[in-house]
Amino acid sequence: MADSEMFATVLFRLGPLEITGTVVTTWGIIVLLGLSARLLSRRLQLQPGPVQLLAEGIVTTIEDAIRTVAPDHVRLLMPFIASLWIFLVVANLAGLIPGLHSPTRDLSATAALAILVFLSVHLFGIRSQGLKNYLRHYLTPSPILLPFHIISEITRTIALAVRLFGNIMSLETAALLILLVAGFLAPIPILMLHIIEALVQAYIFGMLALIYVAGGLQSQQLRQQSKGESS
Amino acid sequence: MELSGSTFLLEMINFLVLIWLLQRFFYKPLQAVIARRRAGIEQQLADAQTMKQQAQQLQSQYENRLNHWEQERQQARETLQQELNRERARQEAVLQVSLDQAREKARVSLQRREQALLLQLEQQALRQASRFATRVLEHSAGPELESRLLALLLESLPQLASEQRQALREQEAEHPEPVEIRSAFALESSAREQLQQSLQQLLDRTIECHFIEDPALLAGLRISIGPWLLRASLQDELQSFADVALATNNSVGPCHGPDSQTQAAADE
Questions:
Q1: What distance in Å separates the CA atoms of residue A166 and residue B158, rounded to the nearest whole number?
Q2: Which chain A residue lies closest to B20 (C-alpha atoms)?
Q3: pTM of structure
Q4: Count of CB atoms situated within 10 Å of the CB of A147
Q5: Shortest distance, CA A200 to any CA of chain B (angstroms)
Q6: Sequence-separated (6 or more) residues with CB below 8 Å from residue B255
Q7: Which residues of B are less than 8 Å from A80 in CB distance?
Q8: A106 to chain B: which residues are within 8 Å by CB?
Q9: Test mutation, B22, B24, B44, chain A, max A CBs within 10 A
């Protein structure tokens, strides 16, 4: 089992930057999604065709999911959360294509997404409540809980990154091992499991990100509601 | 498992670029189309609601109009019924008048027939009575009765009305003719002389008398002075009785000629 099969290798260098297969696959996914979106947006009609109907179904489903968690911030969260779900579904399923690997089997990619979620939580929270009010929620209900808040933020971000990486990495490794041991058609059930796991992991990552961001947005509201109930 | 800084950084940038691309070419256009469609649907719903309200208003208007028509129809039917009742009452009144007229006409006709029948019966009774009286008088007539009739005549001649007496005298003066005296039985000479004297006193002159025996008179006398007749016989009395009875029964009797007038005057 070569290292190139297990880990992302550097394909070329662009100045100080090392361009790995993960980055190139991500670029391919971005180009694919961008072109598809561009082609679809040029043919939009009030009476939708099958493709437009599928696209509208995806968008409205994601909007409904966001509205369920954060009903007051659908427009604000829609681009980030929807992009996470769409990218992760495509990225996780990209490993099914022969010769390609899922970008999410690379810890660097999942960590980058997790860090973006981490930053988004604070960015949307500060944008919604202001810096002072946002930081105040770390001291509630007691300043003693501040270290636990900080540890919670760090650990959940790490867990977000490692969970996605571990699941996708393990799926691809298991499929590769079965292919090496059992033959050409043996990994097909594992590949079907790969599809389900890819969808589930994309949903979990996006839903956790949504919950984290919505928690940062609504922390002040929850505080005000608790104050109102106590008074 | 190793963490590459370049991959980490590039992945962050890639994802941000993807967010921008999708926001630019996917979310916004689709959301705009969905918003336009929703606006169109809401507009259609609003239009449908407006049309529904208009339809309800029209329905209400038509229902009101139908109710109005129903009332007008009911009113027209009542008016027609009233006119029919009036026309029927009028026709019944006209028919009643016609029936009354026909009934009156039939009553009058029946009454006339009854009167005609009664008259016919009376005439028949009078004729039978006349025949019966004639038959009785024929058997009872004789010279004695004629003598009494002559006496009665002699008593009544001076009692004639002055107009009749004057008319007889003028007639005799204009047409001096012999006076014809008919009797059922032969008169004695004294009776003849007494009768001639009475006539001369009546006519105030000397006259010539012809005495004729006529059994058809049954009893009594008949004196002819020109066109005048002085009747004092049973036959004349019976005839007068029958004529008077017939004249009395015929309310519009036949015209009387000068003879009948003279006869009536002489009877008196």
A1: 187
A2: A79
A3: 0.59
A4: 10
A5: 20
A6: none
A7: 19
A8: 4, 7
A9: B22
Residues B163, B250: Cα–Cα separation, whole Å? 29
> How many Å apart are CA A88 and CA A199, to the nearest integer?
8
Classify residue A18 by its DSSP letter. Answer: E
Quote the tokens at residue B132. Answer: 């019966």
Low-confidence ranges of chain B (pLDDT < 50): 251-268
φ, ψ of residue B222 in degrees (nearest 5): -140, 120
Q: Which two tokens stand for residue B208?
A: 């010539």
What is the per-residue burial (b if ≥16 Cβ within 10 Å, else e) of B98-114? eeeeeeeeeeeeeeeee
First CA to last CA across chain B, in angstroms?
185
Show the tokens assigned to A222.
């929850």
Question: If DSSP codes are grouped into helix, strand and coil, which group holds residue A12?
Answer: strand
Contacts of A33 in chain B (CB under 8 A): 18, 21-22, 26
pLDDT in tens, A96-152: 888 888 899 889 999 999 999 999 999 998 888 888 888 888 887 788 888 998 999
Place of tokens 């929703």: B38
Specify the residue for token string 């997404």.
A113
Residues 6 or more apart in contact with residue A211 via CB below 8 angstroms: A69
Instruction: Dump strand ranges (E) for chain A.
Output: 10-14, 17-20
Tokens of B113: 């027939």
| Cα pseudo-dihedral B12, B13, B15, B17, rounded to 10 | 170
Work out the burial of residue A42: count CB atoms within 10 Å of its CB; fewer than 13 is exposed, 13-18 middle, 19 or more buried. Answer: exposed
What's the first-to-final CA gap in chain A, in angstroms? Answer: 65
Q: Which of A22, A60, A116 sits opposite B15 (nearest CB)?
A: A116
